[in-house]
Automatic annotation (TrEMBL):
Listed name of the protein: Coenzyme A biosynthesis bifunctional protein CoaBC
Cofactor binding note of this UniProt entry: Binds 1 FMN per subunit.
Entry keyword annotation includes Cytoplasm: no
Name of the gene: coaBC
Full protein segment contained here: 179 to 414 of 414
GO cellular component: phosphopantothenoylcysteine decarboxylase complex
Region (Phosphopantothenate--cysteine ligase): 11-236
Catalysed reactions, as listed in the record: N-[(R)-4-phosphopantothenoyl]-L-cysteine + H(+) = (R)-4'-phosphopantetheine + CO2; (R)-4'-phosphopantothenate + L-cysteine + CTP = N-[(R)-4-phosphopantothenoyl]-L-cysteine + CMP + diphosphate + H(+)
Amino acid sequence: AESLGLSGKRVVITAGGTLEPLDPVRYLGNRSSGKQGIALALAAQQAGATVTLIAAHLEVALPSAALTVQRVETALELQAATELAADTADVVIMAAAVADFRPDHAEGSKIKKRDDSADPVITLVRNPDILAGLVSRRNARGARQLIVGFAAETGDERGDVLDYALAKLERKGCDLLVVNQVGQDGQGQEKVFGQDSNQVLILDRDGSAPVPAEGSKQAVARAVVERIVNKIDAFQ
Ligand code: C5P
């Protein structure tokens, strides 16, 4: 058989948005269609990898391709599943939109609206940074594992997209950071979510020049996988 770039490699990819329960019927969620994560899973599989897709809430159907899929709901569930799978993986790609905060507790029964009761107050607590945690775990094991993060960035008066993205790459410690520039349409709505195409910069912690990739989410996924293949080749 033809030897592909990721033959014999185990790749873990997270996709979708986590849902953080408030009560049995309500949640706080992060917008993410899951399209980019699914495209990555298929591209990695096409490159010969054994892929595990860890999927939080998706707005699109899972592909019928023979992927190993693990469903999760909350950030803490995604963390547990990803850490376990990552322990034996060559590559981890964190494409999921993880909620930064969760309600400090979920009510056991539906929060009622009563005329005589005060409006509920929701207290949020911080979720762990799963990506940064994966980097620490990898470093503690001294494993040769490639870790890829995603970031949606906007520029502002204090810096441009690239400044913020480079700072994030440093802070998280991952090897590659795929940066989406979040655009605005006429209504001020963010443009990236749910769309079929994407425009990214792939940043590398080794300091090499950022690689732009643009086009369908499939095309972006292929560009990211190609970059991963080049990095993994340099490991050997
Ligand atoms: O800090 P920010 O949310 O912009 O970072 C985005 C990257 O970090 C993504 O790869 C996302 O999957 C990951 N992330 C995480 N845990 C969090 C928040 C984000 O792993 N709590």
